[in-house]
Write a structure and sequence with these properties.
Layout (H helix, E strand, L loop, with lengths): L1 H27 L1 H9 L7 H7 L5 H11 L5 H23 L5 H19 L6 H17 L7 H17 L16 H14 L3 H7 L7 H13 L3 H4 L21 H14 L2 H14 L6 H14 L2 H11 L6 H7 L6 H12 L13 H11 L4 H13 L3 H10 L5 H13 L5 H6 L5 H11 L8 H12 L1
Helix pairs in contact: 1-2, 1-5, 1-6, 2-5, 2-9, 4-7, 5-6, 5-7, 7-8, 9-10, 9-11, 10-11, 11-13, 13-14, 14-15, 15-16, 19-20, 20-21, 21-22
């Protein structure tokens, strides 16, 4: 009866550990594991496997990469991680029970579980290190199963030696840190980035409801509203840091995450040069120097530019993956359906005709060129308008706006400032630019109480002018 009770107590511990970790990574930290999948690549190809997983730590690298491909599905990813973490707790408990009582063993097992759990929340952590930790502990437990006392240390040495060759170290100073802390708000930013790469604009808007006061989150917010045609109304409902929250330059000084984001806006606006530069830079800086997200982006960029041979190189590799193979084969030149060919042709027609040496350092020129090629490129037009506004270039803003009026409260506010500065605040001018007369009254209320209008361009402009004085 006591033995059954002990088993019941331990089963409760294991079940609580499993359900707690599973629920956390699925409901509280859903994008953390998905990002790991995006920076992973596992191709079902004999040559790829033999070349990638040879040498030391081959088994841990193989097992980690194999499991991470399933992180594409948040529930499955959370399940895999929960099983690994619970397995660590169970194995440690069984090892400790060889030498200690029930409660000390449970305490040590919990500490190992908690330590592994916190490691799993690390920003650039790789599943390989949790796999290696569980495998090493299992080897120790296996050695302790020998009945003859003299065989246990011998078996332990042999098994650990095998582990060193097959598993490598369960720790890495960058990617397998000894400790981690969950950053729930950062997971939301990762979610914004992930949904942008999937072009789920409505989901990006929903994730943006809470202002995270980060350049990267504002960047995602702006792109989503530009793609839904509402940036002119929504721009200053979120924290903005001049033009940096519109277009982020690709730079080796940026983090992997920031460089990964930097190309998203340019890809949607129609400039493939910076989009490709962003993907290549992030690919080189990623923990494994690979990743399905980067390969998908490079394939799409090269297809848009008409570089079919380069695109096929990436598509061939993706075609041998479990979850991207069907898409890659459908995008192969010669296999594309009519809708896909039309979409690629339309994107190709919008490419800038000029090439700039320092592309991401001259964003206004690139935006202007994109509009010269395709005046109907509304996302690019919205970006140019907002770029001029956040650079306080009202004359440049009016040149772009006059060519094709786009509705938006922010644009109306900027037009009123320009009209006031040029002595043209008259009914006929308001009508010319489509500004309702009620906006003049609203601007008057702003002048009497600026603090009540913090989400307006007036407030943004006034604050900048005061700082310059």
């Amino acid at each position: 009866m006591k033995k059954q009770k002990r088993r019941f107590n331990f089963a409760c511990f294991a079940a609580a550990a499993f359900l707690g970790s599973w629920g956390f990574f699925w409901f509280v930290y859903p994008y953390h594991l998905l990002r790991r999948e995006q920076m992973n690549l596992f191709a079902f190809d004999a040559d790829y496997i033999s070349q990638t997983y040879r040498g030391s730590a081959w088994l841990a690298r193989f097992a980690g990469d194999f499991l991470e491909q399933f992180f594409l599905f948040p529930g499955v990813g959370a399940l895999i991680v929960a099983l690994l973490l619970t397995g660590i707790g169970v194995v440690v408990y069984r090892i400790c029970r060889k030498f200690l009582g029930k409660w000390p063993s449970l305490g040590i097992a919990f500490l190992f579980f908690a330590w592994s759990f916190l490691r799993e929340t690390g920003n650039l952590y790789i599943t390989r290190y949790t796999v290696a930790s569980l495998a090493y502990l299992s080897l120790v437990l296996l050695a302790l199963q020998f009945r003859k006392a003299w065989l246990r240390p011998v078996a332990g040495v042999l098994l650990v030696a095998f582990g060193v060759w097959a598993l490598g170290s369960p720790y890495h100073k960058h990617y397998g840190k000894a400790w981690g802390v969950p950053l729930v708000e950062y997971d939301r930013v990762i979610g914004l980035d992930t949904e942008i790469s999937r072009e789920n604009w409505d989901k990006v808007v929903r994730l943006s409801k809470k202002d995270l006061h980060m350049v990267e989150s504002s960047y995602c917010y702006n792109l989503a509203y530009a793609m839904t045609g509402k940036l002119g109304d929504a721009l200053f409902n979120y924290v903005q840091n001049h033009q940096y929250t519109l277009l982020i330059p690709v730079s080796i000084d940026n983090s992997l995450f920031t460089n990964m984001l930097a190309g998203e806006a340019w890809f949607q606006l129609g400039d493939m040069t910076v989009a490709e530069q962003s993907a290549i830079t992030a690919l080189q800086a990623s923990p494994k120097h690979t990743g399905v997200r980067f390969l998908v982006r490079l394939a799409r960029v090269n297809l848009t530019m008409g570089e079919e041979a380069s695109a096929q190189k990436y598509l061939n590799l993706l075609s041998r993956t479990l979850f991207y193979g069907k898409w890659a084969r459908s995008m192969m030149p010669g296999n594309q359906d009519e809708a896909t060919r039309a979409q690629i042709a339309a994107a190709h027609a919008r490419l800038a005709k000029k090439d700039f040496v320092h592309h991401s350092d001259r964003p206004r020129q690139v935006l202007r060129e994109l509009l010269d090629v395709d005046p109907g490129n509304l996302p690019a037009r919205n970006y140019l308008l907002c770029y001029d506004l956040m650079s306080y270039n009202l004359d440049g803003f009016m040149e772009t706006y006059a060519a094709d009026m786009i509705p938006g409260h922010v644009y109306n506010e900027a037009i009123l400032i320009w009209l006031s500065q040029n002595g043209r605040l008259a009914p006929d001018q308001l009508s010319r630019y489509g500004v309702p007369a009620s906006e003049v009254d609203r601007m008057g209320r702003f002048g009497r109480n600026p603090g009540a209008f913090k989400n307006t361009y007036w407030y943004y402009y006034l604050k900048a002018m005061n700082e310059q004085q």
